[in-house]
Amino acid sequence: MRVMVAVIGLCSLSHTLAGQSVTFGVKAGPNSSRQVGWCCGESNPFDSRTGLTGGVTASVHIRGPLAFQTELLYAGKGVRGIDVFQMRLHYLEIPLLLRLAPSARHSIRPVVLLGAAPAFELSCTGRTRPPSIPESPAPVVPLNCSAYRTTASDVGLVGAFGAELRLASLTWTAEARYTHGIGDLTAEWNYVRTTNRSLALLFGIRVGQQ
Predict the structure, then answer these.
(1) Is the distance from CB of 70 to CB of 94 less than 8 angstroms?
(2) With a threshold of 0.90, does the pTM exceed it?
(3) How many CB atoms lie within 10 A of CB 28?
(4) What are the tens digits of pLDDT across the range 56-107?
(5) Omega of the bond prior to 137 within 30 degrees of 0, cis?
């Protein structure tokens, strides 16, 4: 239900801004995600994993170099551990961003994005080995994600820096984006705290003048 409300809100915002200076686009690229925190007095032992981020964007000019940008993105996150352990978290992210860029009269210009990104889990998959089976090695089995996170939503602070190249009616974009999760994925357990981190390299294309 929360995902449907977010999608409807995004569409309504785009419709409301249709008479202003609006651009639309798509972007995608690889990311490296990890989880940080502590458990039982020790730091989180997991390693990072590589995933994908991508989706659609819409932005509206506010004033001068400032614009508001909202996005609807798929973001693959999660962690890797020892042996075969891997947890893959699939999120729908809805970043709400302020976009700072010089005048569109320049064909190449730097861009800075700052804001927040609510996220809603689409699914969680993974694999591990049961610790209690005496076989050596134990067989690989599907991961029970409920043993590693207690919530299906998250929110992160977003910071990105990139560049745009305008050719005719199209604008090509490239950015490095860091998302710093501030939601505790294990909030129901008082002996552990876990938050997401993600660094993505995104490439895209936009249509419209801004």
Answers:
(1) yes
(2) no
(3) 14
(4) 999 999 998 999 999 999 999 999 988 889 999 999 999 999 999 987 677 8
(5) yes
How is residue 78 written in tokens?
A: 């999660």
* CA–CA dist 62, 20 (Å, integer): 9
Query: What's the one-letter identity of residue 127?
Result: R
- Closest by CA to 128, choosing from 64, 94, 80, is 80
Report the phi/psi class of residue 184: left, alpha or beta, with left for phi > 0 and alpha for psi in -120 to 50: beta
- Tell me if residue 184 falls in helix, strand or coil: coil
Query: Half-sphere exposure of residue 169, counting CA atoms within 13 Å on the CB side?
Result: 3
* Burial per residue of 86-121, b for 16 or more beta-carbon CB atoms within 10 angstroms, e otherwise: bbbbbbbbbbebebebeebeeeebebebebebbbeb
Domain parsing of the chain, residue ranges: 22-207
Q: Is 156 in a helix, a strand, or coil?
A: strand
CATH 3.30.1490.180 fits 22-207, yes or no: no
Cα 62–chain centre separation: 24
Token pair, residue 115, equals 């804001």
DSSP label at residue 150: S
User: How many residues are there in the chain?
Assistant: 210
